[in-house]
Design goal:
two-stranded antiparallel ribbon, 3 helices, alpha+beta, Glutaredoxin, 6-stranded mixed β-sheet, disordered N terminus, 113 residues
C-alpha cells in the first residue's frame, strides 16, 4: 500500500476563478494535469472515487464540501454547480476541461488512460 502525503493548499485555479480554500487537500501521485475532486466526507461514492484515484496513482486535490463553513462552502458549491448543475457528488474536474459526475469507474479510468 502506497503512503500518501496530504498537504493543504491556499488556493487553486478553477475555470476563470481562484478558490481560496485552506481545507483543500493534496494527494500525491502521477501528475496527469490538474485534478480536483469535490466530495462529501460522509458519501460512500465519494470515498470510492478517492480510493480509485489513489489506486490509479493519480495526483489530485480534493475538498469535502460538507466540512467547509460560510463563504468558502458557498463558493465551492457554486463552483460545483458551474460544472455539474445538479450539484451532486463526487464531481471531479480535470484540467478545467472535463467533468466526471458520480462514481463512474469506467469514465474515470478512461480519463486517465
Amino acid at each position: 500500500m502506497r503512503l500518501q502525503k496530504y498537504t493543504a493548499v491556499s488556493h487553486i485555479a478553477v475555470k476563470e476563478d481562484t478558490i481560496d480554500i485552506k481545507d483543500m487537500k493534496h494527494v500525491e501521485g502521477q501528475n496527469r494535469g490538474q485534478v480536483i475532486a469535490f466530495t462529501l466526507s460522509t458519501c460512500v461514492w465519494c470515498k470510492r472515487a478517492k480510493k480509485l484515484l489513489n489506486e490509479l496513482d493519480i495526483e489530485y486535490y480534493y475538498v469535502d464540501v460538507d466540512l467547509l463553513e460560510g463563504d468558502a462552502r458557498q463558493q465551492v458549491k457554486d463552483e460545483v454547480k458551474r460544472w455539474n448543475p445538479r450539484g451532486s457528488y463526487p464531481t471531479i474536474v480535470i484540467n478545467n476541461e472535463k467533468c466526471i459526475t458520480g462514481y463512474d469507474v469506467e469514465e474515470i479510468k478512461k480519463a486517465f488512460g
